[in-house]
Design goal:
Blueprint lengths: L9 E4 L5 H11 L3 E6 L27 H6 L4 E4 L5 H12 L3 E4 L13 H7 L4 E6 L14 H7 L23 H23 L1 H4 L5 E5 H8 L2 H9 L16 E6 L2 E6 L3 H10 L14 H6 L1 H12 L4 H11 L3 E3 L3 H6 L1 H5 L3 E6 L3 E6 L23 H8 L4 H9 L4
Parallel strand pairs: 1-2, 1-4, 2-3, 4-5, 5-6
Antiparallel strand pairs: 7-8, 8-9, 10-11
Helix pairs in contact: 1-6, 6-8, 10-13
């Protein structure tokens, strides 16, 4: 078992669905003990977001969905009713013993239960309290609920994703819940930074934690990067380009006789080699395309010219020609092809781990490669309440009678 940087950190994960759980999952990957708190009986909302469901050893559906499997590895699960005073008291005890709390309740919900940042940081001044919500803790939209696609729409991402109107296109969302993913990564970065500030900058932090406020709306806007920079610097609205890029051109999916290939020419030299590899060296000096600004200005003609050429190529031959020429290119994979690819297998992008219901399950892994503290040990996302005895009896010291009493009342 490898050494883990966060093996001394305990995280209380009160979040549900994707964004908050992803942040807590990252901390678990880094070695933290992550205790996922779920509603008795039903659990995280994501346990009902199927089909498909993971099959057990006998081929029957479980309550383990792809969202649960994708956002909750390296955690422990307990059940606890936070709407009941007894449940709130147990949550406070756990928060007093934790370094981090992650939550994504509607603004104000946890304050009514005495589980808000101010209350818990008074109880445990070292606590780093991270709130992940749709619009943040402040502002006119703070009380509003929302899901990933709402923030892709309102944050501007959909306005620059898809094919242009003149090609019959319309704004589209990305396939995966990218707003959740980006917000989860920002939340994890915020928590890691606050822990560093608490422990390394004791002269200024006095060893105190912070309250971190992460909004999906803010995170999507931040993720627009050079698209946002273009608008803010020039007032020009970026256009939807389909598979075309916005920097070096040509950059798009080129059709072949039996598929397609994504090609990116990031500079004039790569463009020259692209033309030679396609056996059309004359296009390297074409006055419409000789420099990147010209190619950007004439992007429509550029795409049409090379589309007509690549349609005569087979995909494998075009990929081989691009590799030989040193022009960045790649096939468009489905997920089976992704995980079957030798590069993905070499990098260990999936792992098979034991699962209490299915026997074993394949999960995707953390992409960060550390030289001294590699992330090599994974546990499957927990089943609902899988660790009740370990946490309530082992950590909080409840005896069997007390725990049974809580179960009989539906508190755990």
């Amino acid at each position: 078992m490898s050494r883990k940087p966060f093996s001394h950190i305990r995280v209380l994960d009160l979040s549900r669905v994707i964004a908050g759980p992803l942040a807590a999952q990252m901390l678990g990957d880094l070695g933290a003990e992550v205790i996922k708190v779920e509603r008795p009986g039903t659990g995280d909302d994501a346990r009902r977001m199927g089909p498909p469901f993971l099959k057990d050893r006998d081929g029957r559906d479980t309550h383990e969905t792809p969202i649960i499997l994708g956002s909750n590895r390296n955690k422990k699960s307990i059940t606890l009713d936070l709407a009941r005073p007894e449940g709130q008291a147990l949550a406070r005890r756990l928060a007093a013993m934790s370094d981090v709390l992650v939550e994504n309740f509607k603004v104000g919900d946890l304050k009514r239960r005495g589980l808000d940042a101010a209350s818990l940081r008074e109880l445990n001044p070292r606590l780093v309290y991270c709130s992940v919500t749709g619009f943040g803790q402040t502002g006119p939209y703070a009380p509003r609920p929302g899901y990933d696609s709402i923030f892709q729409a309102m944050g501007g991402l959909m306005s620059v994703t898809g094919y242009p109107d003149e090609e019959g296109g319309a704004p589209v969302k990305t396939g995966p819940s990218i707003a959740d993913f980006v917000a989860g990564q920002f939340a994890a970065i915020g928590v890691i930074t606050a822990l560093y500030d608490r422990d390394a900058n004791r002269e200024t932090s006095n060893g105190r934690g912070q309250h971190i406020d992460v909004a999906l709306f803010d995170s999507v806007v931040a993720s627009l990067s050079h698209y946002a920079a273009q608008y803010l610097a020039t007032g020009e609205l970026p256009m939807r380009r389909g598979t075309q890029g916005n920097g070096g051109l040509p950059s798009q999916m080129f059709p072949c006789a039996d598929g397609g290939v994504m090609v990116v020419c990031g500079n004039d030299e790569q463009y020259r080699r692209f033309c030679i590899a396609l056996e059309h060296p004359e296009l390297a000096g074409d006055p419409r395309f000789a420099t990147n600004p010209l190619r950007v200005a004439n992007r429509g003609q550029l795409a049409a010219t090379f589309d007509a050429i690549t349609r005569r190529w087979r995909q494998a031959d075009l990929l081989a020609a691009m590799e030989a020429a040193g022009v960045p290119a790649g096939p468009i994979y489905d997920l089976k092809q992704v995980f079957d690819d030798p590069q993905a297998q070499h990098r260990g992008l999936a792992a098979e781990v034991p699962h209490p219901l299915a026997g074993s399950v394949r999960i995707h892994t953390n992409p960060i490669k550390f030289s001294d503290t590699p992330i090599t040990d994974y546990t499957a996302p927990p089943t609902l309440g899988q660790h009740n005895d370990e946490i309530y009896r082992g950590l909080l010291g409840l005896d069997a009678e007390a725990l049974e009493g809580l179960k009989s009342k539906g508190i755990v």
